[in-house]
Structure formats: C-alpha cells, structure tokens
Amino acid sequence: MNFGEQLKEIRTTKGLTQIELSEKSGVALRTVQRMERNEGKPSLYSMNAIGEVLGTNLTLLYAPDLETETRNIMESTDQQLWAIARSRAKFKRSLGSYSIVIPFLWVIWFLTSQDKDINRIPWPIWPMLGWGIGLAIQYMKAYVIQVGSLEQREYDKLKNNQ
Prior knowledge:
Helix content is 75%, strand content 0%. It is built from 8 helices and no strands. The model has no long low-confidence stretch (mean pLDDT 84). It comes from Aquirufa antheringensis.
C-alpha cells in the first residue's frame, strides 16, 4: 500500500473528508488531493500539519516502499537507455551526412582544380579531418563510453555496502 492509499485510509477511518482535513490542518485542499493521489512530493510542513490532525506521523508512512523504489530504478534505467539510443541515432545520422557530403566535396575539388599538384594538400582534406574527428568523438560517446555506467557502478557499490 502506497503513501496516498495509507493517508486516505487513515483519513476515512477518522471520519474526515478531504475538505475537513484541509480546513483543520490549514493545508490547501489541492495539496491533500495530490497527496492522496501520490502526485509530487509533499512538503514536510504539509505532512506534519496533516499528521497532527490525524494523530499520526506521516513522514514515517512516506518512506518509499520496495515497489516504488524498484519502479524508480526501472524508470531511470529506461531514461539511460533512451539517452544511449539517442546518441547512437545521432551518430548514425552524422555518419550518413558525412558519407554524402565529403565525397561530394572531393568531386567538386577534382572537377574544379586546375593543377593536380601532388605536393599541394587538397582543400577537402580539412573538412574531412575535422568532421572525422567529430564523428570519432560521437562514436566513442555512443558506443564505447557509456555516460551513466560510472554513476551506476558507484550506486551499486553503495547499495551493496548497506
């Protein structure tokens, strides 16, 4: 049973409506409604004021249960997976653009260059190198270096030490 359900059960056991609880505690009706629906995090003031009216310590009830903690971990994992997927998709788009634009620049150079002097460095080499370095960095971020992996490992270490 989550915090909102417990709060509602205590309130109805005491025979109070949400409006009566709001008036007696001095907490806005909307806040009481949000607390019972588990929307957002209630302030310590609100929990203490309502707890006094109900004759209980709501801060003890608010401690997250195992189900809530598991759901939060899964949501953060999903967010990490989405971030990885976005960075990989961004890399693939950049690689596609690179594979179209750079050969096009070489064709332009080949068709417009009057002197094909071997000692001279062709100008398309510079955008090719600059963009290539950027692509290499994007690749490393997307496939080699996992952004949240270090944080996750540290979190797991702390969790296991408790």
